[in-house]
Design goal:
This protein is α/β, with parallel strands linked by helices. It has a single domain, classed as TIM Barrel. The protein has 10 helices and 10 strands. The strands form 2 sheets. It has an 8-stranded parallel sheet with strand order 3-4-5-6-7-8-9-10. A two-stranded antiparallel sheet has the order 1-2. α6 links the parallel β8 and β9. The longest helix has 15 residues. The radius of gyration is 18 Å and the shape is globular. The N and C termini lie far apart (38 Å).
């Protein structure tokens, strides 16, 4: 794996996606999200991940503009929310997101959650957007293997990305293997366990061994598992700290130790049992 912030993976359709991006979940619309996006892009990030439900797409757009980085050099992701799933509904939601983001196209458009009896129609809308060139890549979030298999039975295109909760307490081994087998890029949300790593002595001791922060250890662990990662922060020092993961490597022994922390524990909702 390349050792620089601009390094990327290649999706199964040939599109390049950066290994590291800025997530903006819970970043407030207005100055907070604008400053986070501007700071990240000025520090060298080239991937920004938002969603309609975050209600900060307009702020992301203003942050991009303030950064001075050309749109063509940014990998921009947003997601269609559960209430907008369906063929026509998803196409309308896409247009609305595009307006808020002030862009002619998206690099990646994702179905946010696998709402039963709705995600297949939404996927057909994503395929149309892909065919017309308005989206460079399409994918899903929070899909278990059985959701992916359902999609496979109805889809013309396999998802290029599956963005799911992933960290040492939730290693998703079977799902990762399935995605790898089907050339679906695995991407981590909540890679920093919503801060809960600070209570874990194993993670803290490995960080001490490498003279790195615990967050840097977790993000490096993602990369060495070939997982795209999008840590969120609104603090410039943390946004910078999260980039400093390309100049060291964890040993296989330490990766194995982190893997063994798995307890199938979620800090977010279970894709088989959510009510939103």
């Amino acid at each position: 794996m390349s050792k620089e912030l601009t390094s990327s993976t290649t999706l199964h359709n040939g599109v390049k996606m950066p290994w590291l991006g800025l997530g903006v979940w819970k970043s407030r619309e207005g100055g907070e999200v604008e400053k986070a996006v501007e700071s990240a892009l000025k520090l060298g990030y080239r991937s920004i991940d938002t969603a309609r439900i975050y209600e900060n797409e307009s702020g992301v757009s203003r942050g991009i503009e303030a950064s001075g980085v050309a749109r063509k050099d940014i990998f921009l992701t947003t997601k269609v929310w559960n209430t907008d799933l369906g063929y026509e509904e998803t196409l309308r939601a896409f247009e609305d997101s595009k307006k808020r983001l002030q862009t002619d196209y998206l690099d990646l458009y994702l179905i946010h959650w696998p709402v039963e009896n709705k995600f297949v129609d939404a996927w057909k809308a994503l395929e149309k957007l892909y065919e017309t060139g308005e989206v460079r890549a399409i994918g899903v979030c929070n899909f278990h293997i059985h959701h992916l298999k359902t999609l496979e039975n109805h889809a013309n295109l396999a998802p290029m990305v599956n963005q799911v909760e992933f960290h040492p307490y939730l290693t998703q081994t079977e799902l990762r293997a399935y995605c790898e087998q089907h050339q679906i890029q695995f991407e981590a949300w909540s890679p920093l366990m919503q801060g809960n790593f600070l209570k874990d002595e194993t993670i803290l001791s490995i960080a001490d061994k490498y003279q790195r922060t615990p967050a840097q250890i977790l993000l490096r662990w993602d990369l060495q598992h070939n997982v795209v990662t999008i840590p969120k922060s609104v603090r410039e020092d943390r946004i910078k700290e999260n980039t400093q993961i390309f100049d060291f490597e964890l040993t296989q022994a330490d990766i194995d130790i982190l893997d063994q922390l798995n307890r199938d524990q979620r800090f977010g909702a279970d894709p088989d049992n959510f009510n939103f």
